[in-house]
What does this fold into?
Amino acid sequence: MKRQTKRLIALLAGCMMALALCACGGGSGATKSVDYANLSVGDIIPFGGYDCRVLDVQEGKALLITNELVDYQGFYRIQDDPEHPNKVTTVSNTTWAECTLREYLNDQFYNAIPEEDRTRILLTHVVTPDHDPDNYFAVEGGDDTEDYIFCLSMEEAYEYFDGLEDRKAVFAEGVGDGQRPWWWLRTPGKGKAAFDGAKTYEFVFVSDSGEIQEYGSGIQYELGVRPAFWINTAE
It folds into this structure.
């Protein structure tokens, strides 16, 4: 009887401790509240099921980027094959506006974010500057887009990160196993620009050393994806 009483007391004490942890926001399953109105650059906050870093804060909004590489994909632009109506073919040059990575981020990835967070994400007018516009072999950035989710441009990656170490990232658990943690930017690479329309089949990326590789990697290769997005910070 005494043993049962002791076990019951221990069980009740454990339950009381668990309840106390939940009440004060502790414990691995607790949901953290975010004071969106008082975000600062450099903050790491939970958002959409990911830990996200605050890159910029402006009146009523903030720019976030996932703290880790949360996916592993290529840039591929896919179009119908006119000779084979039931097939599609991968095109060898593209822009951010035309690529399937953009389509994926603004469809499957965006819609997988819990609604409570998703409703905070702002539709953003995204401009991708031409790469090396003063050079004879300049590469066009492509059409402007309206995106909820996007990759940073090369210019933004230089602006928002403080050097090599700060730009380094690692894969989220279960993503990119065994691969080098390189991550895509939306700026076209200039390594093998087309001579006619100045589109490219390479895009700039950040290497595992934090360097921005301006010549780029081929769109057929899969690299890490670090989605960025603006959110409404009004309560």
The longest strand covers residues 50-58.
